[in-house]
Fold this protein.
Amino acid sequence: MNRKLTTLTILAFAAFAALALSAACKKKAPTTAQEARPPVSVRPSTGETNVPPPPSPGARKDVEAEVLSMDIDALNKKGYLSDAFFDYDQADLREDARSALATDAQWLKKYSTVQVLVEGHCDERGTAAYNLALGDRRANAVKEYLASLGVEGSRLRTVSYGKERPFCSEGSESCWQQNRRGHFVITSK
Amino acid sequence: MNARRRTTCLALALVAAAALSSRPLAAQAPPPTPRPAEDIQIVIKRGTERRLAVAVPALFAPGTAALQAKVADPFTATLRSDLEYAGAFALADPAHYPSGTRDPSAPEAADRWLGTGAEVLVETRGEVAGDRVSVEARVWDLKSRKLILGRRYTGGATYVDRIAHTLANDLVKYFTGKPGEFLSTILFVTEQTGTKEIAAMDFDGRNVRQLTAHRSIAINPSGAAGKIAYTSYVRLFPQIWTMGMDGGEKKEISTGVDLNASPSLSPDGTQIAFAGSAKGNTDIYSIGVNGGSLRRLTTSRALEAAPAWAPTGRQIIYTSDLTGTPQIYVMDAEGAGSRRVTFAGNWNDEASWSPDGARIAFACRNEGDFNICVMDFASGQTVQATSEGSNGHPSWSPDGEKIVYSSRRGGSTQIYTMDANGQNKRQLTQGGNHSQPVWLP
């Protein structure tokens, strides 16, 4: 009897431990992957894609109507679309940028009337002339990736600001990372 | 600095002097050596050119004290400052000028002027009639006691500075054979109003006037043949615009491609070369100054940017990252025959051709900050002319003696000038940010 209880306790404990462990591992894995990527010291604010899956088609329409009833400024402030961040002097999409853009693509497919401007931005290092071209590459890399995920290219326009309109103006890596991005601006809905 | 480096420095100084000077020393300098493996080098510290000693007594303008303060004093100050700046002259100390003696045709008078160390006397007399000023200038060679130049200038009393600049230009032209730059203009980007706008100033940083008020982003000014081209974001997407030297007659050019950055006017003002983009691939394009006849001049998948015309209008230098790092290339104006020009360092960009076409200046970087490098185009011999701050966007003075550039130090970007060998650096702008200078005749 006593022994049976002990076995049960051990089993319960083992099950709990296994659960806890697996939860910890699940949490741990992505964090490590992110930390392993060198200069990603600043994470984009994702805005969490604040559109929960609707329980019924009727409710879904209501949520869509609610999102699209906002004026453009409010819509942009909500941050439904996550920016794509780049490494220094690169226009290749990092893994974190691809996953942000995958979520953006879902949102854009859901709100299929929304038109978007993709701004290419660069940090202050490098010449103004080169950075204008690099920003153009970045904006187009974002556009092409979204198009590959099924977002109509005609809904996406690109513009490069090079290093002319930075988000942050300190001479530090965390600030430079803020400035190396493809930034979304919703232009019509 | 070790001995070998010092030797290299000296050798480069001599080579640079040969490249930069038309004076006798050039003939004694060794011929350019073949391009060394590491051809970006040291800043040159000392000049070796002989300066002509001139005495410039104050403008003699009989009249009231007010006249003295409004006309004579500013005229004298401007003329002296110009001649000191010119590089070809040394100003004999006014404290030692003989009083009352002006005409040096008599031997005793000439001796007194020679006693100041001067070889040449620039004597000026002014008269004011209404709102007009006239200045008579006589230039004497003191050893021979001969009048070598006599000129009369008239103009509005409110711009005596311009009269002094004109005389200074004539003196430079007479003694060096090169055009003076005292009436030249520097275009630049100012952020004084909170947005980036195109502005112009005199060669010495005075007389700033804002030429655009797009309240957006106006950048990349270029000028030739009395016109200015630039890039503006006023229509949200960047477009090339042109305007007159005073900012009038603004016109937008529709190119049909994206980006429209770094427009460069051809020397005759008929064409604009620029960095255009199609689907994220930037290339060098050209278009007529009134729009139309768009041509794509480069066709690589690499990034091409920052075109600049040769003074002949037959070639264009530009930046390409074809080999992995941004380097400077040259091609003919139709886009054929491109070849790489810079090989040292991991970033060379924003090149500008000297007025005689013999040299290019560009932003160069190996490690750390950007500097200004000057390359003899034929030999590839390169001298680094700056060592402080992060420097860029060089442009040559009309006489090819000086370079204007931007330098970022302590969080602010300002415009500087220097001799093409790195000497005599001068800060022209203060406060805020000022960038992308372009020097026009």
User: Anything to note?
Assistant: The first strand of chain A starts at residue 84 and ends at 85. Residues 1-36 of chain A form one domain. The CA atoms of residues 84 and 96 of chain A lie 8 Å apart.
